[in-house]
Design brief:
28% of the residues lie in helices and 24% in strands. The protein has 184 residues and is α+β, with helices and mostly antiparallel strands. The strands form 2 sheets. The protein has a 5-stranded antiparallel β-sheet, covered by helices on one side. It has a 4-stranded antiparallel β-sheet with strand order 4-7-8-9, with helices on one face. The model has no long low-confidence stretch (mean pLDDT 88).
Length: 184
């Protein structure tokens, strides 16, 4: 029984591996772009949900609720954010405040630009008990603006109007989706 043996030769295996390497090399840039696009989509959705949650909690509680970056200086949203009831009025979540939600750091390379009325740090988004965006100084003064998220050459924007309504848009396909320019 010295018939032919089943299996692949070393040359056949090398050819298959070479073809797989070429296919992978061609697909890798597209795969990176796909991962980057998905990270931007997921993060913008999570931030949109956090803003909606902040507004819903303000209405349900009948008091001011804030969303602020976790950065101690109050300017870097890439470190994540916190939704809280600011009982001590210091714009930072602390021991006297009620923490409602916390989001951790964002994926590397993702950036957020904050462009609201009074955009200087500490940055925050606040809603009063009527569900309107407001400032710390005056609970009835509207505070509107845009959060722009940038990642891998793509942009998403979250816009809050003077009534506190929030919407998400893509400047590549939606009209009226203006905001900050992408960082270099």
């Amino acid at each position: 029984m010295n018939g032919p043996q089943g299996g692949a030769t070393l040359v056949e295996l090398a050819v298959v591996l070479a073809i797989a390497a070429v296919v992978y090399a061609l697909a890798a840039p597209d795969l990176h772009a796909l991962v980057t696009a998905q990270q931007l989509k997921a993060t913008s959705g999570e931030l949109f949900d956090a803003i909606s949650h902040t507004r819903a909690q303000a209405i349900a509680r009948g008091e001011r609720v804030k969303l602020a970056p976790r950065d101690p200086a109050g300017a870097d949203w890439t470190q994540g954010w916190t939704v809280f009831v600011d009982r001590d009025g210091d714009r930072q979540p602390g021991p006297q405040d009620e923490i409602l939600a916390v989001h951790g750091p964002l994926p590397p390379g993702l950036r957020i630009d904050f462009s609201f009325t009074a955009s200087a740090p500490p940055q925050y988004i606040a809603y009063n008990g009527a569900g309107r965006s407001c400032s710390d100084a005056a609970g009835q003064a509207s505070r509107l603006g845009t959060l722009s998220l940038f990642h891998g050459g793509q942009v998403r924007r979250i816009k809050i109007n003077m009534l506190g309504r929030v919407r998400m848009c893509n400047p590549a396909r939606d009209e009226g989706c203006d905001g900050a320019q992408a960082p270099p």
